[in-house]
Amino acid sequence: MKKLWLALVGLVLAFSASAAQFTDGQQYVTLDKPVAGKPQVMEFFSFFCPHCYQFEEIYHVGDAVKKTLPEGVKVTKYHVDFLGGDLGPIVTHAWAVAMALGVEDRVTAPIFDGIQKTQTITDPASLKDAFVKAAGIKPEDYDAAWNSFAVKALVAQQQKAAADVDLRGVPAMFVNGKYMVNNGGLDTSSMDNFVQQYANVVKFLIEKQ
Q: Which of 2, 9, 76, 131 is found 20 to 30 A from 55 (Cα to Cα)?
């Protein structure tokens, strides 16, 4: 019984020590103006951003975060307009199509690869083609979604969310409309440490409320 008690005390102390390592201005930043009515966890990214590509396709930061989230909590991903020149807003619109059709996971890697690796996505037509090939979306269904009110609303939603949190760069993750994970303040001694700490910070901020 004594051993069990000591083990439990050890777990509590370990959690306290871990939590104590996460401080405002270091591993996370409290927003000057909290934003109400937003998804509990928001991730902003761009298919044109090399760091976003690394986060998603190489280090799988999003997957690590998802594993630590409480039941019923998900990551809502928004694309930003300010990278990619004239194609940036078009890709944001296409991401809204992906959200509306529920095919985000199926098109993420092909779009990243098409823009950053093979450079085969260079205009609206080649972007649409990625949806048809990767997600099995019929061209006419893609067009219908593109022109739908729901997708236009999702485009506006992404743009407003970025403005509401005064987004300055990507990749960026916000929790409870109050906190932003500070990428530069995390442990970079190894990528595994960085990814695990990133996920732990998000979990800590969700519980912090």
A: 131
Q: Can you spell out the DSSP letters for the chain?
A: -HHHHHHHHHHHHHHHHHHHT--BTTTEEE-SS---SS-SEEEEE-TT-HHHHIIIIIS-HHHHHHHHSPTT--EEEEE-SSSSTTHHHHHHHHHHHHHHHT-HHHHHHHHHIIIIIS----SHHHHHHHHHHHH---HHHHHHHHTSHHHHHHHHHHHHHHHHTT--SSSEEEETTTEEE-GGGS--SSHHHHHHHHHHHHHHHHHH-
pTM of the predicted model as reported, rounded to 2 decimal places: 0.88
Per CATH, the homologous superfamily of domain 49-208 is Glutaredoxin (3.40.30.10)
Convert the pLDDT of each residue in 20-30 to its tens digit.
479 999 999 99
